[in-house]
Write a structure and sequence with these properties.
By secondary structure, this protein is an all-alpha fold. The chain contains ten helices and two strands; from the N terminus they run H-H-E-H-H-H-E-H-H-H-H-H. It folds into two domains: about 170 residues, no CATH class; about 80 residues, no CATH class. It has a two-stranded parallel ribbon with strand order 1-2.
């Protein structure tokens, strides 16, 4: 009887030790993940700071380049750019240096994110996720370039030409920077539509045929997104909505191709 009790006590002690070891292991794993996340965040912040400091000596030239599409049209109308706040001549170029530092550091930021997430992915998931991550960065920069080289000249030519007679158009440098950043983010993130569409298809969340049938809703949604993400003028809204629709169609075609590729691979196996 005593042996039986001792055996049960030993089993309870062993079970308790196993549970304690499991809890300690889980706790150490969480601490390891938090430490890794902290290191990745520190590296990301350092990248932003270094890039911002490298750009700051050229802040005025950078702002002149950013404002060129507007100043070109203002010059034709006899308008100028002004600073309505005392600190704007310094703070506005500095803010542009910081935002530009974040934009230029985006590959490093995404690499740190990838390095944090990648260990938890399967090998086939890594092979698929890494190209999509690279494509996402390129599309983000492509959206910004599209906004600067295509959208800005059209918008500013239209808006500058609509001023009533006798009204001199003079734009505040801080407000122009805020406007530009908003447009850049709107186009940069909207150009991620193909990535989102591809992920929805290859994850079996939606079928390509279902997305094709919902094309009319996508077109309407594109114009709604354009209305929400851009300033209240019809030109910029249309210039954002049309690329969103086109990129959606590209994402559907690409998603179909990847889906067929997966089926062909499964059939061979």
């Amino acid at each position: 009887m005593a042996d039986k009790k001792n055996k049960e006590a030993n089993e309870e002690t062993t079970s308790s030790q196993i549970q304690q070891n499991a809890e300690a292991s889980a706790f150490n794993s969480i601490l390891g993940h938090l430490s890794e996340l902290r290191n990745r965040l520190i590296k990301s912040i350092i990248a932003i700071v270094v890039t911002t400091l490298a750009l700051f000596p050229f802040a005025n030239e950078l702002y002149t380049w950013l404002a060129q599409p507007l100043m070109r049209n203002l010059a034709e109308q006899g308008g100028i750019m002004i600073a309505t706040q005392v600190a704007s001549p310094f703070l506005t170029p500095f803010k542009l240096s910081l935002i530009s530092g974040i934009f230029l550091s985006m590959p490093i930021l995404l690499y740190q994110l990838w390095s944090f997430v990648a260990p938890g992915l399967y090998q086939n998931e890594k092979k698929r996720a890494l190209p999509l991550l690279v494509l996402s960065v390129l599309l983000f920069y492509g959206g910004i370039a599209f906004a600067y080289f295509i959208v800005f000249p059209i918008i500013f030519a239209f808006l500058s030409g609509t001023a009533p007679e006798g009204v001199q158009v003079s734009t505040d440098i801080a407000l122009y920077l805020d406007f530009s950043i908003k447009i850049f983010f709107a186009f940069g993130f909207s150009f991620q539509i193909p990535i989102i569409t591809i992920l929805l298809i290859i994850s079996d969340i939606v079928e390509p045929q279902s997305l094709t049938h919902k094309r009319p809703y996508v077109i309407v949604g594109s114009f709604i997104i354009g209305m929400l993400l851009t300033p209240p003028d019809i030109i910029s809204q249309v210039l954002l909505a049309i690329p969103i629709w086109i990129l959606f169609e590209i994402g559907v075609v690409w998603g179909k191709w990847l889906k067929k590729k997966d089926f062909a691979k499964i059939a061979k196996e």
